[in-house]
């Protein structure tokens, strides 16, 4: 008997759902699920695994609608904010919207600025320069606004920890409304006319995970209801959801509850974009005139919007969405596309430098929380490079750019490690810091970097084990590969959009390599797979499925994978739209070989 060699690179976690609950849900919502019984069972299991185990919740999840939006007045501080904003519009007062330079912040500015204009007001805006000003409100900007006659400042996606700036506003006689979603610090909230943040103490808003643009959307919703009650509210809200959906997906907030409504309806509405800037952005991203997935927003639209704030001036985004001139919109969109290419090149350069450092420094490579610094690294890119380090090494990582005596950093984490709490364990090292469990930003004296490395590594070692660094792939269900049909794909589409909180389902299957693997660009592998199950119907035995093993070329070579081999694959499902070789495509996350020790000739 031949021996079997099994090779794992990831830890496979086969998720289990209560079979009785799955069966009951399948029967309760059968008309909504449609499809064949096997696909219905899989879909019901996917819902239960996502915590959707009642027919009421399942119906809401599968059929998002505007009616599911919560009243904006459930947000603490909303009424005071709307009363003051309404008064400012009525009296033609000067209004300044103070945003942030990323996708979330810039789109939040667009939403609120447009809503104010629709309601008869006019608002100027300020988006800080990432390098010269940094994140959050600045007192000098507010003081200049006061000197220019501004009497109301509204922050979006910022302000929860801006105590000094709030004091500057008070001294200057400016009413400050803070709208934000970041977590308050131990010192409470800044003094302001109103703070609208679902995460502030005492706020019982049902959806705590709105992004900054989501909060701006709620402010716009309340304002439109108050001043434009005679207009079609559904049409107005759908127009704003197009932009709010981009931010909701890009900011990686959980896509359930109100966030799912915004993302789902917004993506659908993007098919019929009429704003010249939005249309130009879709065209330059090669997405015009087609249904959009959350992945396309995250990896093709969001990076181009982010490139403005990362590489140059974020106000280009507001200008893009504000212009009515199609030619001007195309010019700005092309500029964002060029900036994104420059961002990619800068990212590649820094990642290569980091890889070199890690190859040479075993202590740094073995740290439980990596802190990697370099001279003059572009501060607009270090957050992305931190993500790349986490993806490759499975450990929390902070990437720090030194600029003389001052340094600026950005960090990303793994599920088992709360990164903001880690920074809060050594606050004396920083000039400023903020963020949340998975991502942080900070500044500190360059002289403190070594101490930061030591402090965070010690903190991480007290809370993590080596097992926490082993990447895990969660398998939602095992399916026979021959069961993957167009009808199965249609059923799966009912769960979209996918993202944080509603991850794209990962399946496992046993398959045979039908043709020799084909390496693409030295790092990807194209495969043809066929069923193994001898009980499959005759015609299904001859089926061949296209599969892409992204960044797995080295692994395929190590395993010496050949035509005829049988293996277990973990995969997600895509649909390739290419006119000649499109169709259902498996996207491999990992595979487990089941090869005989000695191959037969």
Q: What would you say this structure looks like, in words?
A:
With 601 residues, the protein is of the alpha/beta class. It has three domains: 4-17 and 473-596, Beta Barrel (OB fold (Dihydrolipoamide Acetyltransferase, E2P)), CATH 2.40.50.460; 72-251, Alpha-Beta Complex (inorganic pyrophosphatase (n-terminal core)); 361-469, Roll (Diaminopimelate Epimerase, Chain A, domain 1), CATH 3.10.310.30. Helix 9 runs antiparallel to helix 10, helix 12 packs across helix 15 and helix 13 packs across helix 15. The radius of gyration is 26 Å and the shape is globular.
Distance between the termini: 16 Å
Q: State the shape.
A: globular
Give the % helix. 40-55%
Give the total of beta strands.
Answer: 21
Structural class: alpha/beta
Oligomer: single chain
Describe the biggest sheet?
Answer: 5 strands, parallel
Number of helices: 22
| Mean model confidence by pLDDT | 91
CATH domain topology of the largest domain: inorganic pyrophosphatase (n-terminal core)
* Proper CATH architecture of the largest domain: Alpha-Beta Complex
- Under CATH at level 1, the class of the largest domain stands as Alpha Beta
How large is the share of residues in beta strands? 15-25%
The spatial strand order of the largest sheet comes to 4-3-5-6-7
Low-confidence parts lasting 5 or more residues at pLDDT below 50? Answer: 1-8, 595-601
Number of domains: 3
Return Rg in Å: 26 Å
Q: Layout of SSEs?
A:
Layout: E1 4-5, E2 11-14, H1 19-28, H2 30-33, H3 37-49, H4 55-62, H5 78-90, E3 94-98, H6 103-118, E4 123-126, H7 139-147, E5 150-156, H8 163-171, E6 175-179, E7 194-196, H9 212-227, H10 233-250, H11 258-269, H12 276-284, H13 294-311, H14 315-322, H15 326-360, H16 362-365, E8 370-375, H17 382-393, E9 397-403, E10 406-412, H18 419-424, E11 432-435, E12 439-445, H19 449-461, E13 472-475, E14 477-478, H20 486-492, E15 507-513, E16 518-520, E17 524-531, H21 538-541, E18 545-549, H22 553-559, E19 566-576, E20 583-593, E21 595-596
Parallel strand pairs: 2-13, 3-4, 3-5, 5-6, 6-7, 8-9, 14-15, 18-20
Antiparallel strand pairs: 1-21, 9-10, 10-12, 11-12, 15-17, 15-19, 16-17, 17-18, 19-20
């Amino acid at each position: 008997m031949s021996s079997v060699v099994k090779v794992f690179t990831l830890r496979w976690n086969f998720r289990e759902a209560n079979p009785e609950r799955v069966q009951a849900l399948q029967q309760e919502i059968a008309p909504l699920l449609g499809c064949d019984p096997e696909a219905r069972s899989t879909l019901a299991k996917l819902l239960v695994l996502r915590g959707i185990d009642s027919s009421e919740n399942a119906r809401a999840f599968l059929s998002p609608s505007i009616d599911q939006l919560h009243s904006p007045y459930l947000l603490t501080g909303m009424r005071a904010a709307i009363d003051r904003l309404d008064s400012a519009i009525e009296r033609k007062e000067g209004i300044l919207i103070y945003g942030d330079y990323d996708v979330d912040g810039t789109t939040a500015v667009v939403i609120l600025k447009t809503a104010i204009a629709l309601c008869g007001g006019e608002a100027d805006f300020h988006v800080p320069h990432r390098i010269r000003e940094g994140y959050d409100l600045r007192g000098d900007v507010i003081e200049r606004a006061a000197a220019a006659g501004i009497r109301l400042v509204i922050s979006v996606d910022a302000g929860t920890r801006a105590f000094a700036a709030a004091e500057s506003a008070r001294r200057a006689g400016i009413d400050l409304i803070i709208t934000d979603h970041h977590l308050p610090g131990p010192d409470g909230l800044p003094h302001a006319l109103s703070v609208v943040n679902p995460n502030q103490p005492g706020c019982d808003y049902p959806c705590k995970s709105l992004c900054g643009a989501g909060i701006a959307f709620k402010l716009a919703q309340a304002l439109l209801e108050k001043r434009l009650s005679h207009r079609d509210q559904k049409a107005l809200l759908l127009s704003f959801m197009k932009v709010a959906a981009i931010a909701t997906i890009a900011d990686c907030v959980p896509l359930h509850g109100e966030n799912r409504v915004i993302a789902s309806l917004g993506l659908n509405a993007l098919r019929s974009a009429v704003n010249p800037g939005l249309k130009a952005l879709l065209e330059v991203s090669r997405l015009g005139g087609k249904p959009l997935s959350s992945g396309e927003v995250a990896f093709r639209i969001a990076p181009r919007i982010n490139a403005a704030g990362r590489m140059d001036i974020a106000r280009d985004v507001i200008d893009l969405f504000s212009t009515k001139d199609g030619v001007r919109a195309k010019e700005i969109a092309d500029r964002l596309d060029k900036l994104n290419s420059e961002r990619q090149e800068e990212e590649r350069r820094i990642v290569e430098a980091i890889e070199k450092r890690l190859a040479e420094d075993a202590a740094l490579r073995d740290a439980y929380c990596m802190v990697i610094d370099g001279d003059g690294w572009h501060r607009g890119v270090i957050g992305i490079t931190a993500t790349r380090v986490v993806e490759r090494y499975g450990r929390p990582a902070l990437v720090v750019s030194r600029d003389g005596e001052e340094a600026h950093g950005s960090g990303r984490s793994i599920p088992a490690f709360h990164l903001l709490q880690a920074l809060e364990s050594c606050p004396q090292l920083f000039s400023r810091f903020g963020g949340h469990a998975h991502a942080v930003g900070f500044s500190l004296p360059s002289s403190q970097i070594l101490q930061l490395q030591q402090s965070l590594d010690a903190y991480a070692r007290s809370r993590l084990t080596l097992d926490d660094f082993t990447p895990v792939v969660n398998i939602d269900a095992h399916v026979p590969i021959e069961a993957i049909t167009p009808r199965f794909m249609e059923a799966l589409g009912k769960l979209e959009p996918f993202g944080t909180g509603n991850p794209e389902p990962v399946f496992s299957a046993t398959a045979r390599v039908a043709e020799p693997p084909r390496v693409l660009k030295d790092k990807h592998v194209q495969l043809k797979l066929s069923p193994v199950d001898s009980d499959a119907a005759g015609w299904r035995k001859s089926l061949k499925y296209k599969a892409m093993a992204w960044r797995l070329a080295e692994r395929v070579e190590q395993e010496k994978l050949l035509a005829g081999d049988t293996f277990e694959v973990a995969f997600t499902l895509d649909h390739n739209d290419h006119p000649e070789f499109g169709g259902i495509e498996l996207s491999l996350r990992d595979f487990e070989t089941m090869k005989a020790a000695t191959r037969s000739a």
